[in-house]
Amino acid sequence: EETQPAALDIPMERLTVSYSRSSGPGGQNVNKVNSKAEVRFHLASADWIPEATRQTMASMHRNKINRAGELIVSSEESRYQMRNLAICLEKIRTMVTEATEKPKVVSKETTQKLIERVEKMNRERLRQKKIHSTIKQSRKADFD
Amino acid sequence: KERRRGRGRYRGRKCGRGHKGERQRGNRPRLGFEGGQTPFYLAIPKYGFNEGHSRRRQYQPLSLQRLQYLIDLGRVDPTQPIDLTQLTNARGVTVQPLKRDYGVQLVEEGADIFSAKVNIEVQRASELAIATIEKNGGVVTTSFYDPRSLEILCKPVVFFLRGKPIPKRMLPPEDLVRYYTDARNRGYLADPAKVAEARLELAKKYGYVLPDITKDELFKMLSTRKDPRQIFFGLAPGWIVNMADKKILKPTDEGLLKYYSS
């Protein structure tokens, strides 16, 4: 989390948090206790995320954005509301991190080196194969 | 009374023992016997999972739900710093120092319902529990009590009746020093600046606004902390409490004062 300048500061006032009852087994406790946390925020107007990241997020998480343009993140993994909220915030942070990272640009020299390595391996393999072949041939007793 | 008797059509005849064989005749082999096959409990090799389990440190769990219950019933006073003595007097927890109990640990059960501003001092606390208490404007501290100090803390009156001077609290052993010097656990030996930082960090992680306790009216009470060598809040090590005459005797000898204030 601390790879960026201290964990990303998410302004809580801009988010809409709602709690509801979780699904799954659990008897009376799961029926009564509101432990599923859902966080929504309007992605296009979120100034606390850089513009470019916002675009990437919109395309990456297309399925999590509703018609009104709000990104929805929910969590019902833990028994406690607070922990589920923390998990939602963590998910948002990972989304932002993933969207911010640039694709790895492999330089020309490195690609050339890699191709050369592969070719060298193949040449060596064929050379060894030929040597092995001559050894096997020399064991044949082929008299005229 | 009536239920014990096995007479009558339902509980009579074979009396729930089945038909012939070892079952009816009461001659079944011992528990774990598998008819001659090497039983499970002998086939599996031994490994020291439970080795020394009786010497491990134990901490009595205290859930936030229980704490809220005690505060609501008025058994524990939230306007004073809450200590193990307060909890024991309120019969909220029962600690057995002789059974390798090293104190009380805060557990998250009831985190969603908790809403009380308290200054709590426990021996261990989980992250969510710390976050919940700080969210409601309270203060958590974790501190170490060696078994002798723990016994004195849990049963102060019995100790005072002995007439011996209050001993100084020992510092934690090597493996616990790390735990108590860590700001994330709110250890009593940790740097206060780092503790403040850790509070902010937790607030960001759990998504709540950290209430400013300096502007609180009970700030003085909330910030009272014990000295690392002190066992009780008002008393220092070396003093003798006289229950009969309701007096406190303090040492005047230089050597003793030096020892007790080290």
TrEMBL record, chain A:
Compartments, as annotated in UniProt: Mitochondrion
Domain Prokaryotic-type class I peptide chain release factors: 8-139
Record carries keyword Transit peptide: yes
A GO biological-process term: mitochondrial translational termination
Region ranges (Disordered): 123-144
EC number of this enzyme: 3.1.1.29
GO MF, any single term: translation release factor activity, codon nonspecific
Any single GO CC term annotated in Swiss-Prot or TrEMBL for this entry: mitochondrial large ribosomal subunit
Keywords: Hydrolase, Mitochondrion, Protein biosynthesis, Ribonucleoprotein, Ribosomal protein, Transit peptide
Family statement: Belongs to the prokaryotic/mitochondrial release factor family. Mitochondrion-specific ribosomal protein mL62 subfamily.
Official protein name in the record: Large ribosomal subunit protein mL62
Lineage of origin: Eukaryota, Metazoa, Chordata, Craniata, Vertebrata
Automatic annotation (TrEMBL), chain B:
Compositional bias ranges of the Basic residues kind: 1-18
Protein name: Large ribosomal subunit protein uL15m
Subcellular localization, as worded in the UniProt entry: Mitochondrion
Residues covered by the Large ribosomal subunit protein uL15/eL18 domain: 61-141
Coiled coil location: none
GO molecular function: structural constituent of ribosome
InterPro entries: Ribosomal_uL15, Ribosomal_uL15/eL18, Ribosomal_uL15/eL18_sf, Ribosomal_uL15_bac-type
Family affiliation: Belongs to the universal ribosomal protein uL15 family.
Record keyword Ligase present: no
Superkingdom as given in the UniProt entry: Eukaryota
Source organism per UniProt: Pterocles gutturalis (yellow-throated sandgrouse)
Annotated spans, Disordered: 1-33
Main location: mitochondrion
GO CC, any one term: mitochondrial large ribosomal subunit
GO biological process: translation
Alphabetical keyword list: Mitochondrion, Ribonucleoprotein, Ribosomal protein, Transit peptide
